[in-house]
Structures are given as structure tokens and as C-alpha cells.
Amino acid sequence: MRTLFLLPVIACFASGPAAPQAPFARHAGQPDYVVTMAWNSWGKSGQRTVTYHGKWKRIDQGGTSAYISASDAVRVGIDDNARSISFAHGRKPSRRRNDEPRNTGERQTYLDESCTVWNVSRPIDERSRHGVTHLSCITDHGIELWSKSVDGKGEVAGSAEATSIVRRPVRPEEVQPPRTLLALDWWDQNPPTSGAKSIPDHEVVMEFSDGTAGAEKAIRTTRRHGAWEYLDEKGNHFRRSVRITHDSRSFRLQYTHADGHPHEELRLARHEHAQSEASTLTPEQAKAIEPKDLERSETVLGETCRWFGIHMHDASHLICLTSDGILLKESLSGRSRTDERSWTAIRLSRRPISLDEIKPPAELLDPQRWGIE
After folding, report:
1. Which residues make beta-bridge pairs with 316?
2. What is the four-CA torsion angle of 329, 330, 335, 338, rounded to 10 degrees?
3. How many CB atoms lie within 10 A of CB 354?
4. CA distances from residue 317 to 52, 126, 204, 298, 344 in whole angstroms, order as listed
5. DSSP labels for 320-339?
6. CA–CA dist 371, 4 (Å, integer)
7. Do 101 and 116 touch, CB atoms closer than 8 A?
């Protein structure tokens, strides 16, 4: 999935004209507007349109659209004519950056509008010459007039400047993410089956271990229905991730939620002319990533599985497969033994899996979960 890149897109909401406060604090009297901006980044340039009304701001740039809620708590991105869609709720914590907006106290006039310069984001180590600082000049009514990204050497890596500002009534449907983004029709389509793996329908429940005493128990449930595969991982009854894929690589759904953090994310990808991974590689590349038979077997749940190694840089990834391709054990480790993590099957059922068992949990596709009314 191509990353939706909006050079620094700021949800700019001021609290009043008397004393500019954090740009993310929306106030009830904030007017509707449409701003056209010219941007450039790493030798590329183009136009960006920012449309605002009530709780939402929409940013259109280069064939992509982003919807950002007033509190910046929800972000929705659409790429390539809705073939790639992402939903994010809550800010993702960063150990390398400080995203707390900082008022520099500097005032400027641009397009006959007055704005305050904000240091929106910066490296945790402000003395670092490798990090990038994002600056933005925002009016007292929350309109961004310019933004720029400055590297540790003081050079501008990218910028955006308003070329026109139009204050006009904006209809809610112009800025709100469409509810239809979550109405998946994948199951009614007939994706290509070429290259599909001949793995029988089944359900496997696996348990996680990192080799330490008293470690948290995590459970992974995998279901197979024809070319579809469903994976659901939970820890202490907390859903960490869901992944749904098709062997043709035409469809992919990925949900992640870090335990202990408010951030959750849902990504949907649809590719109409997807190819199998092997078809895009040279024979040498395909051979390099092909699982290597380690010539040893193991018995799990009364089933014999054979160990294979998967090529990874600076890491070890081992899988134990039955003769019909069902995964019963998996081991991942880094350079040291303390990094070792493993999954072991505790229940296996070869049975017909219905399509309803492959579909994502209904709550993940609930528009209200992602702030869409």
C-alpha cells in the first residue's frame, strides 16, 4: 500500500483571536473556508486544496484525500481512487519525536492575513542534525497560511504556501469521510485464483511464548477458506490485530491496536490487477526468498510438520508446516536469544470454513468507531 503523504498537513484549530492557543483547539465560531496551496518537496511540486467545516477538514493533493477530525483524534486517508484506505484513531506514540505544538511567539503577515508561527513537531533531541522540524503559520481562526519542514542543517526539505483563501459556506458532505468507505463488497467479487495455494479449509488456534516465566498469554486464531485467510490475534482478551488476505493479493485488510496505547489503525487495500508475489520477481529473487527445507520434523497435536526457514535480514524466521501446508509452529528471533518468540498450535480443526468466518468483525467496520456520523 502506498503511503498517503501530505507534507506536513496540520489540523489547525485556534481558540480565539485575542491570544492564539494550541492550533488543535477548535472553537465554536470558526468559519468555513477553502484554501488553495502550492507545495514542493524533494524536487516535486503541485497543488493542495484544504476544505474546512465544523468537525472535519479535508485535504486533497495529487490524487489522494485525507480527512482529519477537529480534535485530530481521527484521520482517514484515501489513495488511488479508494483502492487504498486507512483509518487511524488516536495519536501513535513516538519515542523519537515531540509532537506537542509549541508557540514560537512570532507573528507574520501573509496574503494580508496575520498568523502565528508554530513549531508543530520536532525531534526529541533538538540538537540532532538528522531530525526534521515542522513549522506552520496559523491565523487566529485556525487557517494554515504556510508550512515548511526544516532539517537539522537549517535547510528547507519541503514547504507549502497558500495562494488563495475563500471563506464560504461548506456543505458537510464536502469534508466528511463517506460511510461507504467501510461498506466492503469484496466478498461478492470473483478475484483471480491463479497462483492460489492448495491449502484445505481449517482453523488453527496458536499460543504465544517469548520464553520468559509469567509472560502474557497471547492467542492467534487463523482460518482458511479457499484462497482467503483470516488471522485474529488477542492478548489477555485484548484484540491486537486482524489480518485478512487473498492469495491473489487482490485484497488485504489489516487492523492493529497496541496494548496500552489509545492508537488503533485500519488499512484496506484493493488491487484490481494484482499479481502473485512470485510473478513479479526474477528467478534468482524467487529462489532467494523461497522457504528452505531444514530437513527436520516435529509432532504437534498428533500431526507431523516439517520445518522451513524463511530468508530475513539479521533475523531468523522458522515455520513448521504439515504436508498440506497448515502452520503448526512458528519461531522468530533476532540476533540474541532474548529476542526469541514462538507460536505453537494448541487446537487444529480441518473443517469447511464459511465466508462469514473470514469477514472482519462488524465492530471494526462501524463508522462511529472512526468518528463518521
Report:
1. 333
2. -60
3. 11
4. 47, 37, 19, 16, 14
5. EE-TT--EEEEEEE-SSGGG
6. 20
7. no
35: three-class secondary structure by DSSP: strand
Q: Spell out the per-residue pLDDT of the chain, length 373, in tens.
A: 333 333 444 333 333 333 344 565 555 578 899 999 999 988 889 999 999 999 899 999 988 999 998 776 789 999 877 789 999 988 776 778 888 889 999 999 999 999 999 999 888 876 766 688 999 999 988 899 999 998 877 888 899 999 999 999 999 999 999 999 999 988 887 776 655 568 999 999 999 987 665 666 899 999 999 999 999 999 877 888 999 999 988 899 999 997 767 789 999 998 876 554 445 556 665 556 678 999 999 999 999 999 999 876 677 899 999 999 999 999 988 765 556 789 999 999 999 999 999 999 999 999 999 988 7
Q: For residues 346 and 207, what is the distance between their CA atoms, to the nearest angstrom? A: 7
Q: Give the distance between the most distant pair of CA atoms in the chain.
A: 77
CB 114 within 8 A of CB 32: no
* Coil vs helix vs strand at 78: strand
- Burial of 129 by CB count in 10 Å (0-12 exposed, 13-18 middle, 19+ buried)? exposed
Q: What are phi and psi of 277, to 5 degrees?
A: -60, -40
Is the entire prediction scored with pTM above 0.85? no
Length of the chain: 373
H helices of the chain, where? 283-289
* Dihedrals phi, psi of 61, to nearest 5 degrees: -160, 125
34 close to 166: Cβ distance less than 8 angstroms: yes
Going along 54-124, which residue ranges are E strands?
56-61, 64-69, 74-79, 84-89, 97-98, 102-110, 113-123
CA neighbor of 68 nearest in space, from 47, 93, 45, 51: 51
